[in-house]
Amino acid sequence: xxxxxxxxxxxxxxxxxxxxxxxxxxxxxxxxxxxxxxxxxxxxxxxxxxxxxxxxxxxxxxxxxxxxxxxxxxxxxxxxxxxxxxxxxxxxxxxxxxxxxxxxxxxxxxxxxxxxxxxxxxxxxxxxxxxxxxxxxxxxxxxxxxxxxxxxxxxxxxxxxxxxxxxxxxxxxxxxxxxxxxxxxxxxxxxxxxxxxxxxxxxxxxxxxxxxxxxxxxxxxxxxxxxxxxxxxxxxxxxxxxxxxxxxxxxxxxxx
Length: 256
Fold this sequence. Notes:
Residues 2-74 form the Insertion element IS402-like domain. It contains 11 helices and 7 strands. By secondary structure, it is an alpha/beta fold.
């Protein structure tokens, strides 16, 4: 599944961000290949090919590392190659949840509280999750935010901007992010917004030569959704689904 060249790039990064126990993980390369196979194909854990090792080892490793934030740290490590902040792009997408995604433990709260905690909700498109990303000028994911499917994208925009390692020249987003206060926040940051106004708003400056590059982030989502477990959410918990997104984005960084 992973070529020797791909593993040579991935191995030191995984070693750097994985939890350090008393004994190193058994056959880490094969376990990583099993994790990648499962999420790229969207299959049940039990369907992982036997040549990739015990399915339960891959499942336990992925879920445990997701809770510990390992996959987010892996994404941060690959970004040391250099984030391009000439333009940054904000965009959200709706991810339909599989019926198996419901049913996480309530942990003492109501079903509504559990769904909000696990970023699941019902919108016109059905039961699912709203995933928002901020990408650099080359269309590589920098950070993600998750919300229930019916949530608006704008509340996640400022936390995503705050995750940037520096000040971009431009912040590009579609009309869903149109807000006077949000544009003002971008100006105060030292960047320039390229966000078109809604039909019921007064016109604002949005240079076409900048805004026309927004397809960069749309192509990012197209690449990420080639992973079956990104296109459809199978994970019960928000931490696990965030892990899927960060792992897919990290692999995308290594390919670009």
